[in-house]
Write a structure and sequence with these properties.
Layout: E1 10-13, H1 15-20, E2 39-41, E3 47-49, E4 54-58, E5 62-65, E6 73-79, E7 83-89, E8 98-106, E9 114-118, E10 125-129, E11 133-140, E12 145-150, E13 157-163, E14 166-167, E15 172-176, E16 179-182, E17 189-193
Parallel strand pairs: 1-5, 4-17, 6-15
Antiparallel strand pairs: 2-3, 6-7, 7-12, 8-11, 8-13, 9-12, 10-11, 13-14, 13-17, 15-16
């Protein structure tokens, strides 16, 4: 099944990578965590470091194709014109649920021009916060949850994701330089579009 989106692109299959990914962390809602540029406070008072912020290319107009409920993942796609699609999944077929807390910020002070939720349930939310950042909080089971963010054409984003209160970069998927990336080298990571 193709990730939910409004336009048709070429697609890559990555659901088998989800099945092969590392087992999920213990699931559950956690209070007391906060986003920072280089660490997370998981509520224990001990900083959790996720690495220095790195930069990667995200290919323009390349789509991911995944099956819902097959594995934990946050999927980012970029469509020419400044539209980002961010979608999450979980090992819902095994009865698990994943708590996602994601902050997406357009780079270089670019504005958020539009924001649309996708398939959110009652406790899920997406909103503009902290100036030009989008905060997405959702518990994902066997379905997809996500949002569409519109910014200026060609502008990159900083993706800062937590999965069950831990650094979520190993569960991030995108297409860059013609290849599927499964896991990011840092959290947050800056994703910069290829030429439109």
């Amino acid at each position: 099944m193709k990730l939910p989106r409004m336009s048709a692109f070429s697609s890559l299959r990555c659901w088998s990578l989800l099945v092969a990914s590392a087992p999920l962390l213990a699931c559950g809602y956690g209070h007391g965590h906060s986003h920072s540029d280089d660490y997370y406070d998981d509520g224990s008072g001990t900083p959790v470091f996720c690495g220095d912020i790195e930069e990667a290319i995200i290919d323009t107009d390349e789509a991911l194709e995944v099956d819902p409920g097959v594995g934990a993942g946050a999927f980012v796609e970029y469509e020419s014109g400044g539209t980002y699609f961010v979608t999450t999944s979980c090992d819902g077929n095994d009865g698990a649920a994943c708590f996602w807390d994601i902050l997406v910020t357009p780079l270089d002070g670019a504005p958020v021009l539009g924001l649309s939720p996708f398939d959110l349930e009652g406790d899920d939310s997406v909103s503009i916060s902290e100036g030009n950042s989008v905060r997405f909080v959702a518990t994902t089971g066997i379905d997809f949850d996500g949002f569409t963010l519109q910014t200026d054409p060609g502008v990159g984003i900083r993706f800062d994701g937590l999965l069950d209160q831990a650094c979520g970069n190993r569960y991030l998927f995108w297409v860059g330089d013609g290849a599927l990336h499964s896991g990011a080298p840092s959290n947050p990571i800056d994703l910069v579009p290829s030429a439109e």
